[in-house]
Amino acid sequence: MTTATARLRASPLDALQRWLPKLVLAPSMFIVLVGFYGYILWTFVLSFTTSTFLPTYKWAGLAQYARLFDNDRWWVASKNLLLFGGLFIGITLAIGVFLAVLLDQRIRREGFIRTIYLYPMALSMIVTGTAWKWLLNPGMGLDKLLRDWGWEGFRLDWLIDPDRVVYCLVIAAVWQASGFIMAMFLAGLRGVDQSIIRAAQLDGASLPRIYWTVVLPSLRPVFFSSLMILAHIAIKSFDLVAAMTAGGPGYSSDLPAMFMYSFTFSRGQMGMGSASAILMLGAILAIIVPYLYSELRGKRHD
Amino acid sequence: MTSPVDKPALNLSRIAIHAVLLLAVLLYLVPLVVMLLTSFKTPEDISTGNLLSWPAVFTGIGWAKAWATVNGYFLNSILITVPAVLISTAVGALNGYVLSMWRFRGSQLFFGLLLFGCFLPFQTVLLPASFTLGKLGLASTTSGLVLVHVVYGLAFTTLFFRNYYVSIPEALVKAARLDGAGFFTIFGRIILPMSTPIIMVCLIWQFTQIWNDFLFGVVFSSGDSQPITVALNNVVNTSTGAKEYNVDMAAAMIAGLPTLLVYVIAGKYFVRGLTAGAVKG
C-alpha cells in the first residue's frame, strides 16, 4: 500500500525530472530559433521587397541588390572595408606578435606592462573614437603638438582628407585591439615547450631566428583565431566610424555597417539596408565557415 | 617560460628590448593622458596650449558640465547593464549545465546553432528585433534594451559555462544522481559552488560588452532611454555652438570609467574571458 502510493507520487515527479533539462533549455531554444535564425530569414525576405520607411511585402526580386551595386556609396564602403580590414588586421597582428615576443623575454614588470597594453580593449569604441578624434584633430591635436615640439613642417590633417581618413580609423582600431592580440600570443608562447628552444640554442641558432622558424610557426592556431577575431571586428566596425568621422568627409570613410545603419534607419531604405546586411552576413560566413571547418577537422584528427 | 634561476645577463639587446617595451607603454598611455589633461583644462587653455601641455589651472568645469549633461544616460546604462548581465549570466549557467551534464538528443545540434550567435553580425537582426520590440511595447525603453542584450548575449554566456562544465568529471554528477539528487539540487549543491571563476569571467565579459554597446543603444532607444555611449556620441558630434573639448573628454572619461575600473580590479578574469570567448567552442 505505502510503496504503491510512493510509486504513484514518484512517477510524475520522475517524469518532471526527465523533462527538466529540456524545459530549462526550451526558452533559449525558442530565442535562438526565432531571434537568430528567424530574424535572419526575415531580413533576408525584406531584402527582396520594396520596403522603404515601413516594411511592405511587395516582391521586388533582386532589385534592391541591383540598386546596392549601382550605389557608389556602397562601393566606397566596401573598398574601405578591404583597406581598413587589411591594414587593421596586418598591423594589429604584427604589433601584437612583436610585443608578445618581447614580453616573453623574462621582463621584470611584465604584469604591469601587460595591463597597460590591454586597457584600451576595456573601452567602448565610442570612447576610443572620441579620444582619437581629438588626438587627430587638424590644427589642435598631434598636428599642433609636434609643431610645438619643434617639427616645423609637420602636418596631420588626415581626418578631413577624404583620401586618408580611413587611416585614422586604422590607427584608433590598432591602438584598441593590439594589446588583445599581444595577450593571446603571450598565452600561446607560455605553452611552447622550453626544451625545443634550448635545443635550438645549443645548435647555435640566434634567438630571433628560433622565434621566426620554430616558435611562431608552432602558434598557427593562435594566429588563425586572431585573424578571425580581427576580421570579425573589422566587418562589424560601426561605433568607431560613428564616433570618429560619422562616415565623412562626405561618405569617404563609410563602412558597410555604417552604410546599413544609415540607409535602414535614417534614409528609409529598408529594402536596400536589408540587402546590405545580408551581404555582411555573407562576408562573415565566408570567413568563419572555413575556419570552423578546419577547427572541427583538426579536432577529429587528434 | 619564466624561470627565476637563470638571471638574464644585462646586455645591449636586453636594454633595447626594455626600451622598446617602455616606449610602447608610453604610446598606449598617450590617449588616456591626453583625455585626462584636456578634461581638466579651461577652453582658453585648450586653444593656447597643446595636447600634452600642463593645464595652467586644473578646473573641474569640464567634468561638471559633462556630468550635468550625461548623468541621466549614465543611470540608464546602469539600469540596462545590471539586469541584462545578471539574467544573461544566470541563463547561460543553466544552459551550460544542461548542455554538458544533461545532454539529450538534439542538444548538441542546438549548441552548434547557438554558437553561430557569437559571430552573428547584428545588422541582420536589427529590423526584425525593432519590429518585435515595438509589438511588445518595449520600443525606446531600457527594458527593451535589457531584453535585446539578454537574447544576443546568450551565445557567449552559454559558451563560457558549457566549456567550463565539460571539464568537470561526469562521475561527480552521476554519483549524485544515483543518490537521488535532482536537477536543481545537483546544480545548486555541486556545480554552482565550483563555478566562481567562470561566473566572474562571464559577469565581467557581459558587463564590458553591454556597457560599451553602441549599436543596440542607438537603434532601439531614443531620447530619455539612451545609454551613455549614445549620449557621449551625441555630445561629441553635435555641430551646434563652439566645441568644448574639455567637456567632450570629461564625458568620454565618465563613459569609460566603469569598464576601466572593472578592468583594473579584475583584469585577470577580463583577459580570460577575452581569450575564452575568442578561442573555439
Automatic annotation (TrEMBL), chain A:
Question: Where does the ABC transmembrane type-1 domain lie?
Answer: 78-293
The record's annotation in Gene3D superfamilies points to: MetI-like
Q: Which residues form the signal peptide?
A: none
Keywords for this protein:
Cell membrane, Membrane, Transmembrane, Transmembrane helix, Transport
Name of this protein: Glucose ABC transporter membrane protein
- The record lists the membrane-crossing segments as 23-45, 81-103, 115-135, 164-189, 210-235, 270-293
Which GO BP terms, alphabetically? transmembrane transport
Q: How does it sit in the membrane?
A: Multi-pass membrane protein
**Species of the source:** Pseudomonas soli
Where does the protein principally reside? Answer: membrane
Q: Which InterPro entries match?
A: ABC_transporter_permease, MetI-like, MetI-like_sf
Q: Which family does it belong to?
A: Belongs to the binding-protein-dependent transport system permease family.
The answer to whether keyword Transmembrane helix applies is yes
- Whether Cell membrane counts among this entry's keywords is yes
Q: What is the lineage of its organism?
A: Bacteria, Pseudomonadati, Pseudomonadota, Gammaproteobacteria, Pseudomonadales
Q: Which PANTHER family match?
A: ABC TRANSPORTER PERMEASE PROTEIN
Subcellular location, record wording: Cell membrane
Example GO CC term: the record gives:
plasma membrane
